[in-house]
C-alpha cells in the first residue's frame, strides 16, 4: 500500500504543475470472461476508500474470485481558502518586487517567495470568477504599462550611433519581461487560460508595440540601423549577425516585419542590385561578372538562413536574379560568350547556364540562340574556305568534339541544346554544296586504307563513328555514296584496305543509317570479291599441270558492272605472255558462264615485278600495270624518250604523265630523267636507275593509283548530277501519274518534299521542261501553269 501511495504522490505533483484536469487511469489485467460489475464490498474496501477521502493514496483490489483492476486516481485535497484580505496584504510586496525587477535593482523578496505568493493567489480557483487572479492581472498590466512608458524617453535620448542604439533597443526588448514571465507563469496557466484576456507575453508585446515601436522616431532608427548593418555586410564588412537576428525576430513577434521592415528592405535591395548590375556588366569581364552574381546569390541565401525571415526568400532571390541576370542576359551573351567557348572556359559557361536557368525559359532560349549562332559562325568559316579543304574534316571533328564536351559538361546534355547543336551543325555544313560530302568520304577512305596501321581497331571504330556523325548532317548523301563507292573499289581492287572487318563494319553503319537501298551496290561489291576468290580457285585447278605463258601468275576480279563505278576504257599494249594468259582465262570463264561478256579494265591493275639492278640483290616492286609496262621496256632498251614510251605502250597522255612522274620524280626513283625537272615533257629522256638502293626487299610504288585526278573527281561529280536529274524526272512523273493534273506551284512543292538531296528551283524547272519536250506531260489548254499527265 505504501508503494501505491508514493506513486500517486508523484502523479499529483506533476498534474498540479501542468494545471490539468483530474483524470482516472485504469490498468487491467489480461482479458478474461466479462463479469458483472456488482460485487460485495469488503471491510478492506471501505477502509481504503476512507483513507482516499482523507487525502491519502490507495490501491483498490478486487476480491480474488473476480477480475482484478488497479485504479490510480489523483489526490483530492480540500481546497485552501485564503483570507478575504490576502490580496491586499500581498500586493504591496509584489508591486515593490516587480518595480525592482523592472528597474534592474535588487528585489527585497526572493524569487521563490514571490512565486509561492503568486501561485497561492492563482490556484485557489481556476476560473475567471476568482477576484484575486483578476486583480493580479490588472495590476500587473498597469505596472507593465507604466514601466514601458518610462523606457520611451530613454530610447529617444540615445546617441546617434546606430549600432549602440540597436544594442540598447535589443537589450530593452530581451530583458524587460524575461523574469516576470517566469514568475507569473501560473497566472498564464490558470486565469488567462479561462478568461478571454491576452497572455502575459501577448500583453507585453502589445504594450511594447504601442508605446515603443509605434513611435515613428524609434521605429525609423531601428529599421534604418538594420538596413545599414545589412548594407555593411554586403560590402564585405564584419557585422553582428546575432544582433540583426534578434531585432528582426522582435519585429516578427510584434507583427511589424511584413508591414514596416520588409518593404523598405526589398526596395533598398532592388536599388542596390539594379545600380550594381548596370555598372559591373560594363566594367567586369564576363567570367568575373558571372562569379560576382553567383557570390551575391550565395550571400543572400546565407542571410535568409541566419536572420532574414523565410517569407522574404522568394522576393529577395527574385530581386537579385532580375537585376543581376534577367536585365543583362543580352549584355552577357554579346559581351564575351563566344570568347568563353573559344577559350574552352567550361566552368564559366556552366555557371552562365545555371544562372540563366534560374530566371526561366526566356533566358535559356536566348542562350540557345547564342550557342547556335556561335556554331554557325565558326563552322561556316571551316567549310567555305576552299584553301583549307585538306584540313576541313579534321577541324570539323575537333569542333564537334569540343561542342559535345560543352553540351555534356556545361548544358548537362539538355535535349533542346542538343537539338540546337544538330540543327546549327547541319545548317553550316551544307552551306557549301557537295564538297563536305566528298571530303568526308575521302576521310573515311584515308582511315580505311592500309596506311592507317597506327590506330588500333577500337580507335578506328571510334574515328569511323565520329565521321558517321558528320555524315548524318550532310544533305548530299548521294555525293558521299559516289565518292565512297569509288574509293572502296580502289581499296578492294588494289588491296589497300586496312581491314575487311572494318570495311564491313562501316558498311553496316551506313546500312543502319540510310537503309538497304543506299548500301545495296556496296554490298554487291563485296559479293563480287568473294565470288572472284571462288572463280580463281577453280581457275588454278584448271591450270594445274598446264604450262603457264611466261611462267607468270594472274589474279582476275570479276566485277558486276552495275555495282562498281564506271571506268573509262583505257588502251594499252600488254606483254605477249600476259595477253595469252588473258585469252586462256576468258575461255575458261565463258565456258562456265554463257551469255556474259568480259571487258578488261586496266586502270586499277597492279603487278609484282622482280628486278636486278647490276650486281646487287634482287628487289621486288609493287607497281601498277602501267608502271610495269614502262619498266619492262627497259629490258630491251637502255634509254628511251617520252615519245618512244608512248608509242610502245599506247597509254593515254594523261595516264603516261602520271606513270612517268611516279617512276622518275617521286621519292622512289627507278628511272633517271633528263632534264631534272619535276614536270614530264615530250622531250624528256629516261634511263634505268641502276644505282637504286633501298633497305627493303619489297618496295611499293603503286600509290599513284590511289591518288585521285582532277578528271576523275569531275567525272564522279558529274555522274552524281546526272543521277539527280534522273531522280527528279522520276519524281515528277510519279507525282503526275498519281495526280493526273496539277498546278505548277503544287508540283514543285511535292517534288521538293520527296527528294532527299539539295536541289535548286531552276534545276527542277529545267527537268520539267525536259519532260514536256519528251511528252511525258503537257500544259493545260486552259491554264499554262497547270500540267496534265500523258498516259
Walk me through what this model shows.
The chain has 791 residues and is mainly alpha-helical. Among the domains are: 2-73, no CATH class; 86-214, Cullin Repeats (5 helical Cullin repeat like), CATH 1.20.1310.10; 606-708, Ribosomal Protein S5, domain 2 (2-Layer Sandwich), CATH 3.30.230; 712-789, Winged helix-like DNA-binding domain superfamily/Winged helix DNA-binding domain (Arc Repressor Mutant, subunit A, Orthogonal Bundle). It has a three-stranded mixed beta sheet with strand order 3-4-8. It starts with a helix and ends with a strand. Residues 1-64 have low confidence and may be disordered.
The Cα radius of gyration reads 51 Å
- Number-wise, the strands total 11
Characterize the largest beta sheet: strand count, sense, and whether it forms a barrel: 3 strands, mixed
Query: How many helices in DSSP terms?
Result: 32
In terms of per-residue confidence, which ranges show pLDDT below 50 for 5 or more consecutive residues? 1-64
Terminal-residue CA separation: 121 Å
Q: The CATH topology of the domain at 86-214 is what?
A: 5 helical Cullin repeat like
Give the second-level CATH assignment, the architecture of the domain at 86-214: Up-down Bundle
Query: What structural category arises from helix and sheet content?
Result: mainly alpha
Helix content: 55-70%
Under CATH, the homologous superfamily of the domain at 86-214 reads: Cullin Repeats
Spatial order of strands in the largest sheet? 3-4-8
Percentage of β-strand residues: 5-15%
Question: So what's the overall shape?
Answer: elongated
Amino acid at each position: 500500500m505504501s508503494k501505491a501511495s508514493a506513486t500517486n504522490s508523484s502523479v499529483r505533483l506533476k498534474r498540479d504543475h501542468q494545471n490539468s484536469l483530474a483524470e482516472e487511469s485504469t490498468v487491467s489485467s489480461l482479458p478474461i470472461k466479462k463479469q458483472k460489475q456488482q460485487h460485495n464490498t469488503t471491510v478492506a474496501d471501505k477502509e481504503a476508500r476512507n483513507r482516499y477521502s482523507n487525502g491519502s493514496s490507495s490501491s483498490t483490489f478486487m476480491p480474488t474470485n473476480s477480475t482484478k483492476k488497479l485504479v490510480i486516481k489523483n489526490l483530492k485535497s480540500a481546497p485552501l481558502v485564503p483570507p478575504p484580505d490576502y490580496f491586499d496584504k500581498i500586493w504591496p510586496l509584489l508591486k515593490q518586487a516587480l518595480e525592482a525587477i523592472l528597474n534592474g535593482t535588487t528585489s527585497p523578496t526572493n524569487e521563490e517567495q514571490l512565486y509561492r505568493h503568486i501561485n497561492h493567489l492563482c490556484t485557489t480557483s481556476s476560473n475567471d470568477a476568482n477576484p484575486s487572479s483578476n486583480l493580479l492581472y490588472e495590476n500587473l498590466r498597469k505596472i507593465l504599462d507604466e514601466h514601458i512608458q518610462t523606457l520611451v524617453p530613454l530610447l529617444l535620448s540615445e546617441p546617434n550611433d546606430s549600432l549602440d542604439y540597436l544594442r540598447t533597443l535589443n537589450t530593452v526588448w530581451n530583458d524587460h519581461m524575461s523574469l516576470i514571465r517566469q514568475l507569473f507563469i501560473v497566472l498564464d496557466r490558470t486565469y488567462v487560460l479561462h478568461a478571454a484576456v491576452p497572455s502575459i507575453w501577448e500583453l507585453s508585446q502589445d504594450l511594447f508595440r504601442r508605446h515603443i515601436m509605434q513611435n515613428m522616431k524609434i521605429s525609423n532608427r531601428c529599421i534604418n540601423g538594420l538596413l545599414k548593418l545589412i548594407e555593411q555586410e554586403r560590402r564585405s564588412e564584419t557585422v553582428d549577425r546575432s544582433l540583426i537576428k534578434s531585432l528582426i525576430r522582435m519585429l516578427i513577434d510584434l507583427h511589424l516585419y511584413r508591414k514596416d521592415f520588409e518593404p523598405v528592405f526589398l526596395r533598398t535591395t532592388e536599388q542596390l542590385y539594379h545600380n550594381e548590375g548596370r555598372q559591373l556588366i560594363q566594367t567586369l569581364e564576363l567570367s568575373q561578372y558571372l562569379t560576382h552574381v553567383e557570390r551575391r546569390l550565395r550571400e543572400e541565401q546565407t542571410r535568409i538562413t541566419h536572420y532574414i525571415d523565410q517569407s522574404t526568400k522568394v522576393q529577395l532571390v527574385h530581386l537579385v536574379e532580375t537585376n543581376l541576370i534577367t536585365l543583362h542576359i543580352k549584355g552577357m551573351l554579346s559581351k564575351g560568350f563566344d570568347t568563353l567557348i573559344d577559350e574552352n572556359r567550361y566552368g564559366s559557361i556552366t555557371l552562365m547556364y545555371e544562372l540563366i536557368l534560374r530566371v526561366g525559359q526566356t533566358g535559356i532560349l536566348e542562350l540557345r540562340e547564342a550557342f547556335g549562332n556561335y556554331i554557325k559562325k565558326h563552322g561556316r568559316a571551316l567549310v567555305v574556305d576552299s584553301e583549307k579543304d585538306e584540313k576541313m574534316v579534321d577541324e570539323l571533328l575537333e569542333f564537334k568534339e569540343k561542342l559535345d564536351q560543352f553540351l555534356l559538361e556545361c548544358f548537362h546534355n539538355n535535349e533542346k541544346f542538343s537539338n540546337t547543336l544538330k540543327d546549327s551543325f547541319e545548317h553550316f555544313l551544307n552551306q557549301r554544296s557537295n564538297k563536305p560530302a566528298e571530303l568526308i568520304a575521302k576521310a573515311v577512305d584515308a582511315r580505311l586504307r592500309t596506311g592507317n596501321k597506327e590506330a588500333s581497331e577500337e580507335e578506328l571504330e571510334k574515328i569511323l563513328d565520329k565521321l558517321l556523325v558528320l555524315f548524318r548532317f550532310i544533305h548530299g548523301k548521294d555525293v558521299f555514296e559516289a565518292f565512297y563507292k569509288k574509293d572502296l573499289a580502289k581499296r578492294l581492287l588494289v588491296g589497300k584496305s586496312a581491314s575487311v572487318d572494318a570495311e564491313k563494319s562501316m558498311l553496316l553503319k551506313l546500312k543502319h543509317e540510310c537503309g538497304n537501298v543506299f548500301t545495296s551496290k556496296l554490298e554487291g561489291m563485296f559479293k563480287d570479291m568473294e565470288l572472284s576468290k571462288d572463280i580463281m580457285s577453280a581457275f588454278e585447278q584448271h591450270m594445274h599441270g598446264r604450262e603457264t605463258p611466261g611462267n607468270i601468275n594472274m589474279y582476275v576480279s570479276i566485277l558486276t558492272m552495275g555495282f562498281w563505278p564506271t571506268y573509262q576504257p583505257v588502251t594499252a599494249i600488254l606483254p605477249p605472255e600476259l595477253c595469252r594468259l588473258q585469252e586462256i582465262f576468258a575461255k575458261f570463264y565463258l565456258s562456265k558462264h554463257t551469255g556474259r561478256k568480259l571487258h578488261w579494265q586496266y586502270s586499277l591493275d597492279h603487278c609484282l615485278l622482280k628486278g636486278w639492278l647490276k650486281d646487287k640483290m634482287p628487289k621486288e616492286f609493287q607497281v601498277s600495270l602501267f608502271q610495269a609496262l614502262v619498266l619492262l621496256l627497259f629490258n630491251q632498251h637502255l634509254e628511251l624518250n617520252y615519245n618512244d614510251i608512248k608509242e610502245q605502250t599506247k597509254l593515254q597522255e594523261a595516264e603516261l604523265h602520271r606513270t612517268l612522274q611516279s617512276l622518275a620524280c617521286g621519292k622512289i626513283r627507278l628511272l633517271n630523267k633528263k632534264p631534272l625537272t619535276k614536270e614530264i615533257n615530250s622531250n624528256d629522256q629516261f634511263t634505268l636507275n641502276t644505282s637504286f638502293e633501298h633497305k627493303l626487299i619489297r618496295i611499293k610504288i603503286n600509290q599513284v593509283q590511289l591518288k585521285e585526278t582532277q578528271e576523275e573527281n569531275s567525272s564522279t561529280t558529274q555522274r552524281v548530277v546526272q543521277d539527280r536529274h534522273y531522280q527528279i524526272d522520276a519524281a515528277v512523273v510519279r507525282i503526275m501519274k498519281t495526280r493526273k493534273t496539277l498546278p505548277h506551284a503544287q508540283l514543285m512543292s511535292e517534288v521538293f518534299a520527296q527528294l532527299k538531296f539539295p536541289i535548286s528551283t531552276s534545276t527542277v524547272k529545267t527537268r520539267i521542261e525536259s519532260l514536256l519536250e519528251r511528252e511525258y506531260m503537257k500544259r493545260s489548254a486552259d491554264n499554262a501553269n497547270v500540267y496534265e499527265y500523258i498516259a
